[in-house]
Design a protein that fits this description.
68% helix; flat
Length: 703
């Protein structure tokens, strides 16, 4: 594609559009004075028109308009007030809603109370009555008339509890209970009211019944365990049928006994409840109650044997599909053996059973917990090989779980090098699956660097840290810079190159004075390290290149792969190719240009160099004036860019002149032949980030 031709076409299109715009605008200039004279004459007409409303919604829109005058707002309020008495119930209801909003916003409690009372006398719809009652009670509260607020809510419950929904009853009772307790100091009245409403609830309103019981318990306890709570819970449990409500009551009863330091009765309540109700409860509720009971047995009654027996019983009673809860129970059982009984064999058996559930729940975080628990047993036994094998197995079998905690544990427990190396390849493969997108690089590349450093593969770690720096997202730049400095320090045994790298990140090649060719000019120490050239590693990514389409987005994705292959020159050429093939629309052109400039700034720290390339691809050799041999003529800065991104071992003695970028050799650019069965990417790669200044992380250099 001829860049100059397409840019010229774009300029011609833009010029044409500007000419058309001027033709459209010129008559407007001529009529400006006429329009100004007519404005005053039309003002009164517009004002009169604004006072005419067809619906409450239209009236409210006029009220909320930015140019609404006091006269318009007054007219809107009058219209809405009249509309509330309309024979059309829909219009009356709509007007009421709008007026309530206006009165509430203006704290106009008198009119709000009057409106709600008027409409309550006029409507029979249950939902409308609930809404108006809520607004009326709120208006009384705004006026600090708490007695009337409570009266209104109480009357609603008495008259409407069977007409409205259980959810509305619960919400009203909640507000009324709060009024009694916090505003009128009538705690006993609050409890009596809640008890009355609980008894009126239909049996199938389980969720609302549970909410009401929770309110009653909060009213009784006031944050402290007491005999009244015990009496209420015990009595209520005798007649209650709902498993959910029984669960709430049993938990509160056990907590009250525990608050009074009656631990045997506290445990007895939970144990009895589980025996009688476990099949009626959700597995999650059984797990929560069993954990509370286990803590009581171990920490308060000194009966770890009872805790283990309880766990055996509950694990066997779980339904077959409750694998997450089963894993959690096995972990809890293992904790009793490990921490309390110091029985490593029993702890290992329990944790091991939990890890074996990975086939059913590979994405559940409980699998990471089970794995880390089993590892602590092997560490205690002094067996880092087994610990590393468990972590590697979890990393392999649970690919959706976060890798960093597992990798960090591998490093901490001194897993053997073969295990660490296997982890490196697992993470590299995940990055390759996502076409080296920055999101995957952010997730896995830091761990790759740390694993290599742990194996004392320091040079390779530095190279992978360089890849991380070039391929990560902007938010991960500080972490990438830290890893590069760590690699330099580890290799050199001093902070010389680490500090030089930090200075380069802060000032770029021109140094602190910002001028090229002066004594403080800097060199990028990362260019001294040779490129990564591992055949096995490269194969993971080069296989992806031929599967990508021969269009501008395909070449953009190729650039991400080349960056991860530690081949910056090929990545640059791919980005040039992407721009050449980019459609002539603003959005795509901006994306392609941002990718190029972002790449240059990230790799060279030279903003001016990025700007010179953008100028060149936008205007060509002739510059902005479009004429050869003038002062604004431009040259392709590709050669200068190549010199700053090529590693020392790659540079020829005399750099070849590259006026026109050539496509990367690894892929045919004219008519690529697609494979018979192209592989599909596992995840859509992210676009190259736009050019941004590198975070100023070098202010505090290593000391």
């Amino acid at each position: 594609m001829n860049i100059k031709k397409t840019i010229l076409q774009q300029k011609m299109i833009i010029a044409g559009l500007l000419s058309m715009a001027m033709l459209v605008m010129l008559p407007g200039f001529g009529n400006a004075q006429t329009a100004k004279k007519d404005a005053t004459a039309n003002e009164s007409g517009k004002e009169a028109e604004a006072l005419q409303f067809k619906t409450p919604t239209e009236a409210m829109a006029s009220y909320a308009a930015s140019n609404a005058t006091a006269a318009v707002k007054k007219a809107v309020v009058k219209y809405l007030q009249n509309a509330t008495t309309s024979q059309n119930e829909t219009d009356a209801q709509a007007a009421t809603i709008q007026l309530i909003s206006l009165y509430t916003r203006g704290s106009n409690t008198t009119d709000l109370i009057q409106l709600c009372l008027q409409r309550l006398n006029a409507t029979k719809d249950a939902d409308t009555i609930y809404s108006l009652t809520t607004s009326l009670a709120g208006a009384y509260q705004m006026a600090q008339d708490y007695s009337n607020a409570a009266r209104v809510l109480n009357e609603f419950l008495e008259k409407q509890r069977t007409q409205t929904t259980p959810a509305n009853v619960l919400a009203t009772a909640t507000t009324l209970s709060s009024l009694y307790i916090t505003k009128t100091s009538q705690t006993n009245e609050a409890f009596v009211m809640l008890d009355r409403e609980l008894n009126q609830f239909p049996p199938n309103a389980e969720k609302e019944r549970n909410g009401m019981v929770s309110l009653m318990l909060a009213t009784l306890t006031q944050g402290k365990a007491n005999e009244k709570t015990i009496e209420f819970c015990a009595k209520q449990m005798e007649t209650e049928k709902s498993p959910l409500v029984l669960y709430t009551l049993a938990t509160a009863l056990s907590g009250s006994y525990q608050g009074l330091q009656d631990y045997p009765n506290s445990a007895k309540v939970l144990d009895t409840f589980l025996e009688n109700n476990r099949t009626k409860l959700l597995p999650a509720n059984v797990l929560t109650m069993a954990k509370s009971l286990s803590v009581l047995y171990v920490e308060k009654i000194s009966r770890p044997d009872a805790a283990l027996a309880m766990w055996d019983r509950e694990i066997k009673a779980l339904p077959a599909e409750a694998d997450p809860e089963k894993a959690a129970m096995l972990i809890a059982q293992g904790d009793v053996c490990f921490s309390t009984l110091k029985n490593m064999a029993s702890a290992e058996a329990a944790y091991l059973k939990a890890t074996e559930l990975y086939k059913a729940i590979p994405a559940n975080p409980i699998m990471s917990e089970a794995c880390l628990k089993l590892v602590q047993v092997y560490v205690k036994k002094g067996n880092p090989d087994q610990a590393g094998a468990v972590l590697l197995s979890c990393l392999t079998n649970c690919p959706i779980l976060p890798a960093s905690p597992l990798v960090q544990k591998m490093i901490e427990v001194d897993s053997p090098n073969p295990c660490l190396d296997s982890a490196v390849w697992i993470l590299r493969d995940r990055i390759a699956t996502q076409y080296a997108a920055s999101a995957a690089v952010d997730l896995y590349q830091p761990d790759i660097v740390k694993l290599l450093l742990k194996q004392s593969k320091n040079q390779e770690a530095l190279q992978e840290a360089r890849v991380f720096l070039h391929a990560c997202s902007d938010k991960s730049l500080p972490a990438a810079i830290d890893l590069v400095t760590m690699a330099f320090k580890t290799i050199d045994g001093n902070l010389g190159r680490a500090n030089n790298f930090l200075r380069y990140q802060k000032y770029g090649v021109v140094g602190e004075d910002g001028k090229s060719g002066t004594a403080d000019d800097l060199k990028n120490p990362l260019l001294d390290a040779p490129p990564l050239n591992d055949e096995r590693r490269n194969a993971l990514f080069t296989a992806k290149l031929d599967t990508l389409p021969n269009n501008w987005t395909g070449w953009n994705k190729r650039s991400s792969i080349y960056i991860y292959l530690d081949q910056p020159d090929e990545a640059f050429q791919a980005l040039r190719r992407s721009f050449e093939m980019c459609p002539m629309n603003e959005k795509d052109l901006q994306m392609a240009t941002d990718a190029l400039s972002g790449f240059i700034i990230r790799n060279t720290k030279d903003v001016k160099l990025a700007e010179s390339l953008v100028d060149y691809i936008m205007f060509g050799q002739m510059g902005k004036d479009g004429q050869n041999g003038t002062a604004d003529d431009l040259k392709d800065p590709a050669q200068d860019i190549a010199h700053q991104i090529q590693y020392a071992t790659q540079r020829p003695s005399t750099p070849a002149k590259t006026e026109t970028p050539k496509p990367a050799a690894a892929v045919k650019t004219e008519a690529p032949k697609p494979p018979a069965q192209p592989a599909q990417p596992a995840a859509k790669p992210e676009a190259q980030p736009a050019a941004k200044a590198t975070p100023d992380t070098a202010d505090s250099e290593s000391k």
